[in-house]
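I am still getting used to backbone structure tokens and would like to learn alongside you. Would you supply a protein for us yourself, any chain you care to pick? Start from the sequence, derive the backbone structure tokens from it, and show both lines together. Go ahead whenever you are ready, and we will take it from there.
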Amino acid sequence: MAMLPPVDPVVLQHNPNFEVLYKDLCSRKLNTDGSTRDTKKQRIHDEIRKSLTIARTNLLSSQLLITSLSDLPSKASDLPPELHSIIEIVTAQLSGHVADTDREILSSDVTHFLDSISTIATALSHQLATIATLLCNIATAAHPNEPSISTSALPEKAAVMQDEATHQLRRDLSEARTNLTNTLSTLLTTHLSLLDSSIRILEQTQHGALSRHTRSSAEHLHARATVLGLQAKIHSISHAPPAEFLAALKEFKRAQGSGERALKDREALARRELDVYERAGGKGLRDLAGRKRVLEREIERVDREIGKLEEGGDGRI
């Protein structure tokens, strides 16, 4: 019906036959998505879907009961101890872990289980109620400020959460994808503007008028400096220096010459003093060597005399 164009209620009031046709199309001939409705096929599909739902519900209920029953001995503190082993045996049999040939052997345990079914059912009900309470707490965990829902409202809450997961989240994802696409488009537009500005700046600074102006200015300054250098050289060649400048140069040269002669005289005097020192030092070293030889001969003579005295003393003894 959402695919059909809206009709003004005034038009429907003035055309009763069209109103009947329009309502028939919306209710029986077309689906909500605008496709043609096949009533017979849809009835068959609805029956199959209903049977499948019932089968899935029964299967999940059986699995839930078997799982809860297997956990019952360890979680039900008020359960009699003699029922623990019986519950485990029955749970194994329900799970298909017991062979058909062993069923007769375990028939007494099954009978005892059936006799105590009221006690087991009560403990199992308490266990399932505890699980339902935990599920209620989990269902409201996203909103801690809200009060916890009751177990009777849990199916409705589960239906709402399923609808959110299958429809609302899908719509949110679609909206987020649209926003992401718009953001990406904006980003690409901004990037294009950035590239345009970068190209314009590069053209102005490196390849454009600004770069050419800077290069022309540098070449102009270089040419001016060259011209000034040539002008200075021409001026120095064509114009003789003044007399005062020449006199100052001569005086400076004369002062430099007298200073050079004084330095040479000092150098010659220093060399003569060095020669005198070397000659005097050589003679002193020769005198010291002669005295050393005299002392060495005197020491040898004294040593010989001491040796003779020692030999003479030994002979007398």
Remarks:
- The chain has a mean pLDDT of 78.
